[in-house]
C-alpha cells in the first residue's frame, strides 16, 4: 500500500487532477464547495494493478492553511507537485516544495497542469522553469508530466509515471511497533468513535489494545476499514480508519497519536535540527514558533 500526496500553489488544479485520476472529489466541506478552494485535507483512492489500492491525500494550497498541508503530507510516500501551466512556479509552490524536502519524501512527480489553457511554447517554458528548480535538490531528474484534467490529455501518462515511481520506492517499514498520527476523528452512529490516519511501522488487528497520547488512554479496536471497505488488518502505509471502544470521540483530536503499548514515552523536551530555508533569517531567543509534528500543530517560543 502507498500514499500519494499533492502539493502546490492555490488554484493550480490539485483537487481536479486527483478527480481526473480517481473519479473522486476530495473537497468534502460545504465551505470548500462554496469557495471552490481546498481548506482541509481530502482523500481519494485508485486501484492500480500490481499495487492494490493506492491512496491520495489532497492538501490546501493557500498559505493560511500550511499546517493542514503538513498534516496531509505526513505519511506520504510519493509527492505529486502540481504547477499550473498558466501561472508557473509560485510562492506556495516553493513553500510546499520545501515541506516535501523537510519531510524527507522519497520521490516526487512534477505535474504541469492546465496545459489546455496555454500554447506549446508556454508549456515548454514552465517545464524548463520546474526542471531548473528541481536541479540540485533530492528530486533532480524527477519525472515531469504535462496534463490537462479538463481534456484528459496526459492523464494516462501521469498514471504510468505514478506506477513507475511506486516501483522504485523503498518498501513500507514493519518493525512490529505500529503507530498512527490521527488526522480525523468523529462519532459514527451505531459504531461510536472512529479515528483515521496513515498507519506506520507495523500492523494492527481487530481486538488489539491500543493507546492514545497525550494521556496514554487505553482503547480497543472493534473494526478496521480502509477507504470505506472492511479490512482484516491495518497495514503499514495504508489509509486506515479504526472504530474504537473505551474512548469518547470528544476526547480525541487531530495531532493525537495512536500506538501499541511500550512504544512512545512522554517527554517535555525536543531535540531538533534546525534548517533555515531563508539564509537571511536567524533563530533568536524568545522568537515565536509553530512546531508541526505528524498531524499536530503546537505554538511556542524558542
Secondary structure blueprint with pairings:
Blueprint lengths: L2 E5 L6 H9 L7 H6 L6 E7 L3 E7 L7 H8 L4 E7 L6 H12 L4 E7 L6 H15 L9 E3 L8 H13 L11 E10 L3 E8 L4 E2 L3 E5 L3 E10 L2 E2 L2 E2 L3 E8 L11 E3 L28 E6 L2 E6 L1
Parallel strand pairs: 1-3, 1-4, 4-5, 5-6
Antiparallel strand pairs: 2-3, 7-8, 7-15, 8-14, 9-13, 10-11, 10-15, 11-12, 11-14, 16-17
Report on the structure:
- The protein is α+β, with helices and mostly antiparallel strands and 302 residues long.
- The chain has two domains: 3-167, Rossmann fold; 172-302, Elongation Factor Tu (Ef-tu), domain 3, CATH 2.40.30.10.
- It contains six helices and 17 strands.
- The two termini are 38 Å apart.
Number of structurally distinct domains: 2
Structural class from helices and strands? alpha+beta
Task: Identify the CATH architecture of the largest domain.
Answer: 3-Layer(aba) Sandwich
Q: What is the rounded Rg?
A: 20 Å
* Apparent shape: globular
CATH class of the largest domain, please? Alpha Beta
**Oligomeric status of the shown chains?**
single chain
Quick one: biggest sheet?
Answer: 6 strands, mixed
Enumerate the strands of the largest sheet in spatial order, edge to edge or round the barrel. Answer: 2-3-1-4-5-6
Q: How far is it from the N-terminal to the C-terminal residue, by CA?
A: 38 Å
Q: What is the CATH topology descriptor of the largest domain? A: Rossmann fold
Global mean pLDDT: 85
Q: By CATH's scheme, which homologous superfamily of the largest domain applies?
A: P-loop containing nucleotide triphosphate hydrolases
List segments where confidence is low: pLDDT < 50 over at least 5 consecutive residues: 29-39
* Helix-strand sequence: EHHEEHEHEHEHEEEEEEEEEEE
The tally of strands reads: 17
**Percent helix range:** 10-25%
Number of helices: 6
Amino acid at each position: 500500500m502507498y500514499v500519494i500526496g499533492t502539493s502546490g500553489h492555490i488554484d493550480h488544479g490539485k483537487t481536479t487532477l486527483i478527480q481526473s485520476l480517481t473519479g473522486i472529489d476530495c473537497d468534502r466541506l460545504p465551505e470548500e464547495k462554496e469557495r471552490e478552494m481546498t481548506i482541509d485535507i481530502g482523500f481519494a483512492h485508485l486501484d492500480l494493478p500490481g499495487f492494490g489500492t493506492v491512496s491520495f491525500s489532497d492538501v490546501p494550497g493557500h498559505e493560511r492553511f500550511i499546517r493542514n498541508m503538513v498534516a496531509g503530507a505526513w505519511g506520504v510516500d510519493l509527492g505529486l507537485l502540481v504547477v499550473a501551466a498558466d501561472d508557473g512556479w509560485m510562492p506556495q509552490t516553493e513553500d510546499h516544495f520545501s515541506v516535501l524536502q523537510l519531510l524527507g519524501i522519497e520521490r516526487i512527480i512534477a505535474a504541469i497542469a492546465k496545459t489546455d489553457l496555454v500554447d506549446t511554447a508556454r508549456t515548454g517554458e514552465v517545464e524548463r522553469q520546474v526542471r531548473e528548480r528541481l536541479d540540485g535538490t533530492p528530486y533532480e531528474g524527477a519525472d515531469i508530466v504535462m496534463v490537462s484534467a479538463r481534456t484528459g490529455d496526459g492523464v494516462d501518462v501521469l498514471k504510468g509515471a505514478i506506477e513507475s515511481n511506486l516501483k522504485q520506492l523503498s518498501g513500507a517499514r514493519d518493525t512490529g511497533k505500529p503507530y498512527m498520527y490521527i488526522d480525523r476523528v468523529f462519532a459514527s452512529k451505531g459504531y461510536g468513535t472512529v479515528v483515521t490516519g496513515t498507519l506506520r511501522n507495523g500492523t494492527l488487528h481487530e481486538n488489539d489494545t491500543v493507546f492514545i497520547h497525550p494521556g496514554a488512554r487505553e482503547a480497543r479496536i472493534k473494526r478496521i476499514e480502509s477507504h470505506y471497505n472492511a479490512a482484516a488488518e491495518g497495514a503499514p502505509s495504508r489509509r486506515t480508519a479504526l472504530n474504537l471502544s473505551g474512548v469518547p470521540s470528544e476526547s480525541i483530536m487531530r495531532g493525537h497519536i495512536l500506538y501499541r503499548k511500550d512504544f512512545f514515552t512522554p517527554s517535555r523536551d525536543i531535540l531538533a535540527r534546525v534548517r533555515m530555508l531563508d539564509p537571511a533569517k536567524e533563530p533568536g531567543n524568545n522568537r515565536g514558533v509553530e512546531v508541526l509534528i505528524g498531524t499536530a500543530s503546537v505554538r511556542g517560543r524558542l
